[in-house]
Design goal:
Elements (H helix, E strand, L loop, with lengths): L2 H11 L3 H21 L3 H10 L16 H8 L5 H9 L2 H4 L6 H22 L10 H8 L10 H4 L9 H19 L2
């Protein structure tokens, strides 16, 4: 499946602009992680783009989220490795733990985008370009800030060999590449 086909498929299932932007940011981070780790950039990017394809179908029910995605994506011939990473970014639904680099990268990569966006929105100019990696790392320690963002999942960056400060910098930079068209 090409990137454009994946984007069209995503838009058939996700209508919220906020969720679409989240998926685009996750795609950007995953592409950057793939480059950094010597992985398949297209495969990792598609996983980031489609990781929440069923979020509206399941009404964000963590017991079903990603299981519906598995059905949607398998019926369209998506690479089983991509489907596996997508399914495993929500361990709640599977009852299993992430074990592969791809699974950890997707979980950490899509999760840090939420913390970065939340950090951006507290800046006076609300511009991603103003956010520094050290600010994101500092916000990691503030449990009340963006309380729904699971810091333990973000820390899975270390399981793929990337320290938190580098992971934050890499993620911000990746998101900056598309932030203009997404309004940040």
């Amino acid at each position: 499946m090409t990137r454009d086909e994946a984007d069209q498929l995503l838009k058939r299932y996700v209508g919220s602009e906020r969720m679409l932007n989240h998926c685009y940011f996750a795609e950007a981070v995953m592409r950057r992680l793939a480059r950094r780790l010597g992985e398949d950039e297209e495969k990792w990017g598609i996983a980031g783009l489609l990781h929440d394809i069923d979020i509206e179908v399941t009404n964000a029910d963590l017991n079903r989220h990603c299981l519906e995605a598995q059905e949607i994506l398998a019926s369209r011939g998506i690479d089983p490795e991509v489907i596996d990473a997508i399914v495993m970014h929500n361990e709640t639904a599977t009852g299993r733990k992430r074990t592969t680099r791809f699974q950890h990268a997707l979980a950490a990569g899509e999760t840090i985008t939420g913390l970065i966006v939340a950090t951006t929105l507290v800046y006076p100019d609300k511009k991603l370009a103003s956010v520094k990696p050290k600010s994101v790392v500092k916000r990691m320690k503030e449990k009340a800030f963006a309380a729904s963002v699971n810091r333990d999942i973000i820390m899975e960056c270390e399981l793929i060999g990337i320290p938190l400060d580098e992971f934050a910098a890499l993620s911000i930079d990746a998101m900056l590449q598309i932030s203009g068209r997404l309004g940040l």
